[in-house]
Amino acid sequence: MNARTLPLLTLLLLSPAHAATFLNVATGSSAGTYSTMFKNIGKVCTQSAYLKERGTSGSLENIDLLLSNEVSLAFVQSDVLKAKEQIDGDTRVQNIKALLPLHNEEIHLFAPPPVTKKSILGKVTTTGVTTFNDLKGKRVAAWGGSLITARVLSAKLGVPYTVTSVKDRDAAFNALRAGQVDAVLAVVGQPAAWVKDLSGLNLVPIPYAPSLTGIYSSAKLLYPNLSAGSVPTVAVQSVLATRDFKTPEKKDLLLKYQKCAMSKLVNLQEDEGMHPKWQEVTFKTWPWPQYK
To answer: Any signal peptide, and if so, which residues (predicted)?
Structure first.
């Protein structure tokens, strides 16, 4: 390369056509599972250099950003996609495809320890939330995609409760400590670092029932700081979603990114520092139509 070609190369790199190859990806919080897994793929796939991360509040915001054409890819819970299609009747979801099927995210239900009181007549009563059925008539805080999950579980399991929408995780637990809600529901892939740091709360079991088939699967939570043993719950599969793009340049980039991630699954599962959730990924179970 000689000096005369450098200005031309610089112009090409700065041209609108080249800039258009950069795509925005909606993830979540900077310390969350989505963000970490996106960064992990970036370590093994050079195609990630053309993808820019956009931090968000989670699945609900991510799908809205994808549908409104503000991002080209988004990490989302598959139950949020299904709710958009089946409950909201949003026909735009039919244009959404799964670029990569990912891990299962466990539903975490937190509540303060139950309070036991003894009356002057000797009658013992216990108040609080120790089972999912105890949520009947109570208030459950959730944010992001967890809002949809909380509503779907209430309907599918036949336990009516009020879902209280909050801004983020901190707001949810502040409301719980202030007694403004009775429980907090969060969808997050375990092991979640922030859950490991919690204390003074119980994990409440969530039963798996036939009514959940096709959306959720049975799972267990293991957090020694919150429970002496495993706690039954349910999980929902997450996906890296995109729209059904037809532009050759964009389609080529997305398919190469997809192919690279799939070919590097062993590296994502075994290289030190990768998120442990990669060990559950197979790239074989597609809860949503595949991008091809």
So the answer is: 1-19
